[in-house]
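User: My collaborator sent over this chain with a note saying "see what the structure looks like." That's all I know about it. Can you take a look?
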Amino acid sequence: MHRIILPFILIALLFIHCGPAIVELSETNPPDYGKRAIGANGMVVSAHPLASEIGLEVLQNGGNAVDAAIAVAYALSVVEPMMGGLGGSGSMLIWRQNESQAEYLDFYARSPMNPDTNVLHYTYDDMSPLGAAIPGTVAGLSEAHDRYGKLPYERLINPSIELAENGFPVHGLLARIVQRDSTKLNLYKRPAELFWPDGRPIQAGEILKQPELAATLRLITEFGSDGFHSGRVAEEIIDVLNKLGNPMTLEDLEQFTPKWKRPVCGVYRDHVVLSAPPPQSGFQIVQTLNLLESFDISAMEPPIRSYQSLHLLASALRLSTSDRMQFLGDPDFHPVPVAQIVSGEYTKKRIQEFDPNTVVQTQTPGNPESIDHPTIPEKCRKFDPYQTVMSNIFHPAEKSKEGNYLIVEENESQTTHISVIDNDGNAVSLTFTVGVYFGSGVWAAGIFLNSSQHIFSGDPESPNVLGPGRTPRSTTTPTIILSGDKVRLVAGAAGGNRIPTSVIQNIIYILDYSMDPIDAIRMPRFYPFVSSPELHLEHGFTGAVFHSSRVNGYEPESRDPFELYFGGVHLIEQKNNTYIGVADPRRDGEARGY
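Assistant: Without extra context I'll predict from the sequence alone. Here is the result:
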């Protein structure tokens, strides 16, 4: 008996010693239970299998990447109402292969023209109807379709109408969040009836029907964004909000217009990196990669086994996060020093703060105003990158009485992300959200209204200060990376402050460590705090890494494996003319390709 078992034990030990194998590209490789898919013609990755399936059908029936992303976004509004929806907002980065050009559409929520500043007295744990800003999802998706859509709009929305009307089996994540947010979902009669039928939370596997949402979607198929931003739906939204004290008006809704912009651009190891301009956080992606460019991280073991690479990545992320928290806001009202922050000149100054032997207690922001003439990489010039130049007014970082920078570390894990690429090589990276789970909790016309105004600052000197018609800053980072003249990666994530850090870690694992995307997305993640040496490590880091982190000055904390806290990354890699799509195992999502 022992002689039979021993060889199997030795083989098992051999595999454990060698670590996870890189999956070779092969048409015979089956989808990894939906988390990994291979396709030669198109790929869709989203936070729910039903939504990904709808996007795949759009591609197979002649739709392009924009069409598929729109269809998936509407589907997620039905099957993931706690993360994103028609009452929320977002943005999309679009790559047009034939033109070799990228565009960015910002449809994030904005404050009413007469906002109530009392909203600033509330927190994420104490929601208020005052937190609802003007939603932009419907206007944004309609605008994208008007400019680049190929299939009729109703064909993209009809599958979601069927899901809302006929219902769908509730997944475990939605069921858990419904139970967690019992107070919010029972504030108003109708959402309580839908999500807490007979006074109990809807269970995983039960059928959720949303007839009011189906009716709203039908109006959008008939009238486009006017079916939401004016008429019956708009009147119902404003009536509900006004009765609850929110000052939003019909004019606020009717006048919402998405904004076309150029993405932030950088170059990392000869790859062109395109990401989200302010008030979203794409410049942190570019800045972090700039900081890492000088180091041969591929020569080190991955962070789960190497304190050296962990400290390097953590230091770069702490530096870039401190700059994001200090300078990011709505650029229409407060210029953001993007050109300076992503410049090589600023990188050289910030990289001097790297110390392989020291962990600073609090990472402070830098001084980008010291860069008079920031340069733009040659490979980025063709994209006319959105590089807002800083104004002459420079506000030093706000300090507490103890002299520490006041930085808020958010712990929310909401939001949802979509990555798509089509047969022509066009790609879309789209992130949208209702804020915290189920947004403000205010329900009207079948939708939950967002909680975006709670992100604003009450400090008049802050670039993120609340004001009429302003967009709050966001950690979302829809990103596309090019190799030569083709898309290499389409990526983005959900997860609050863990969005930039999670996206960066996956980029590094794929580009520097040559991991298959499924191996990269399964790698244990970490999150370094800016305001303290606290370091959250997902289960899987070695005891030696924990020890080195502790003795060198970090305060490491172990967290559960595949925890929702570490976000949900959905990405696509194009390799050898083949698309590999992977969905984060920390969420319900799946990849679909053909």
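A starting point for your reply to your collaborator: The longest strand covers residues 89-96.
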